[in-house]
Structures are given as C-alpha cells and as structure tokens.
Fold:
Amino acid sequence: MADTTTGINPNVVVSTKKRLESDDNFDRDDFLKQPNKKHMKSIWEDPASALANARHEFGEHGGVNMSIEASATFTVMESETMRRMFSGELGPDRDFFIYSRHFNPTVLNLGRQMAALEGTEAAYCTASGMSAISSVLLQLCSSGGHVVASRTLYGGTHALLTHFLPRACNITTTFVDIRDFEKVKEAIVEGRTKVLYFETVANPTLLVANVPELSRIAHDKGVMVVVDNTFTPMVMSPARLGADVVVHSITKYVSGGADIIAGAVCGPASLVNSMMDLHQGALMLLGPTMNPKVAFEISERLPHLGLRMKEHCLRALTYATRMKKLGLKVIYPGLEEHPDHSVFKSMANKDYGYGGILCVDMETEERANRFMNLCQNYAQFGFMAVSLGYYETLMSCSGSSTSSELNAEEKALAGISPGLIRMSVGYSGTLDQKWSQLEKALSRMQDLNLFPKQL
Structure:
C-alpha cells in the first residue's frame, strides 16, 4: 500500500492510513512526543506560543478545523494486519488504529495540544479529571505501594487516597504539609513510596506548592512527582519546574463552558504508552475513554485559553485587592501578604497573573451561605455552584461542598474554615459592572450586621 497522491498536484503527498512499516522508522514513544522539547525544563516557553507551535490538524477535505474521527472501531486492509496490531508491532505511530478505547486520532490530536500546553513529551485525554488522577496513580503504584500527598487536596482526590485505594488496591497514603520539606522527606519510604502528589495551588485554601524544591526532594529518593494543575493552566507549568506528570480536570478552565466533563494526563511518552498498553495499561483496561466529539470541541477552545486566563486572573486580583481594603478576610496568592506570594511569583509564567480563584473567609457557614445567597439572588453577581473556570463567577462554601469528604480534623489540618467561600471569578460583563454588583451584596451584609467580627 503506497502513499497516494492527489490528481491535482503530483507534488502534494496525502498521508494514507495504513502506511507500510518500511515507509518510516518511527519509534512508538517518539510518535507521541512534542518536537524540540529536549531542554523543556530549563528553557521557559510561553504556553500560548507552545500551543501555536503544536501540530495543527487539517480537516480531511482541507477544512481549517480537523475532522472528527467518530469511529469506535477501525478497518484493516489485510487480515494479517490485525494480528500485528494486537501484538504491538503496528500502532498509531504508523496510522494503524484498533479501537477508540485504545487510541483515537482526534483524541490523540488533543493530547498533543495538551502536551504542548504543559511542556511535556506527551499527553492523553480522558473522560474526567478524576479518571486521569486515578489512572496515573494505579499505573505508578502496585499493591503495597505508598503515596505521599499534600493534606490539602480536592475532596474527591482526598477520598480516593484515603478510602478507595487502601480498600481496593492496598495502596496507602501519608498526608503532609508540603510546605514543611522535612516532613515530606520523613514521609517518603525509600523503596516503597512511588508518588509524591500535590496540587500546584491547593483546592480550596490556595496554598502554593514549591514545585522545584518538592521535585528535587522526591527525585533524590527515586519518587515520581504528580501535580494537579487544574487551577492554573497557562499560569503555571509544573513540568518545566521539575514535575514528572501533570494532570488536569479539563472540565474547568481548559473547557471554560461548564458543559464538558474531561481530564488529561501529561507526562513522558513512555508513561502515556504504558497506560495504553493492551495488557497492563490503566487507561486502556479501566476504560475512561474520551469521546472524540468532546476532544474536537476542546481543541477549538484551547487557542483562546490564554486570553481567558489573563482576564480571570486580572479580575480576581482586582476583586481581592478591593475586598481586602473593605476589611474582608481575603485569601489570594496575588496579594503580597499571602504567605506563598513570593513562591508563586517565582514560578509563574510571565504576564498571566496569579490565578482566577480567590477565597473569602466569613468564619461561619451561616454567614458564608447568606453572603452567597445575596450575591446570586439579590445582586446578580454570580452563581452558587461548584466547579470553576466558567465565564460567570461561581461560589461555594468548600467545607460543606467540594471538601465535604474530609472529616472535621482533616479540614482543620488543611486550613479549611467552616465559612470559607471559594470564588471562581468570571469575566462576563464589565469589571466595574460586576464589582458594583458585589458591592451591593456586601452593603446588604453590612446592613444586616452579618460581617465577621474583625470587620
């Protein structure tokens, strides 16, 4: 089966499906790798530039947008080819596809874009953020394995590590304050600990991880570093700071529309391929497959992610600064008094800001709920809803919602106050218009004498 050429211009070669093995000397790992990434951890590259330099897939008929390969299964031209595909001899590196739970061309293209965004060799996209997290941990840890993790994590991840993995897989976790490097070192059990896991910016307390130092500590002891970068795409690049694997809930900022559930694993090509192995791959065998139609939609949103993140961050900093002046207890890494402000600034990519999430501590759940109710139903400032990264502002009381999986002691250790409101700042309307709405809610709180004591 030779390459076919167009009848219009014999010099234009159209890549065929099912190329001959002798046509190219592909390495399977190289197929998934981003080009020119040998020094990616030492040379800063704007994520927007990296995305623009990633391979752009054209549509089958020359459309500026790539085509959607919606097939669940794929044909072969010769019966012997199927045996060779299942043996691993032929694969997507030569345009041979078996089944979309394994590899799908559209999902692979989104993976290349996510790898470019995070500065990793490869990436593969999944049906949810939790499926990305759980699959990575199950690939890197076997029965009897051990994880060291930040004690401040998204509630679902905390529950996975605390309850599910010990019960179902005999994988245990030690939770530590990741700002205490000595405690991190002490928690690592050489020969048994496989993963150091944390979030770049912790959900919901906005604690900032020192990625370079934590990566050095882990690597000195032969431990892989897995970082959840859901809160800070574009803003932070953990792989360039030393992390081995970066996971995302694409559902949030990357999608931006609150209409898609999706995740991603970004890391070494060897890891991604091992996760798709027909016999031992966590992604292949557990089946958290991304729908190619979803992959297409997300790929259309990635080009303006940088613009969206800059506006989220600008508004979050503006609101945090103004709310602080009013006497509110505001937690935001962009404020100089935030304990991790300097660490954040030292790691952040240029010109993107300090993230689009801020927290307001109203001390009690009752006051937090009243404030959110006023913001939504009285002032029309935002919505009471979980999740983040939407173009409207979303608010939730973390202790009784997205961190409800933690018990009272765990919440206290994580620094989650009963009245802590996590606010994902949106960019709809003008900044002054939305600030006026927020002021209206704050004024009503003051009229009702519902501010925390310090005000």
In short: Confidence is low (pLDDT under 50) at residues 1-26, 36-42. The radius of gyration is 23 Å. The CA atoms of residues 7 and 389 lie 47 Å apart.
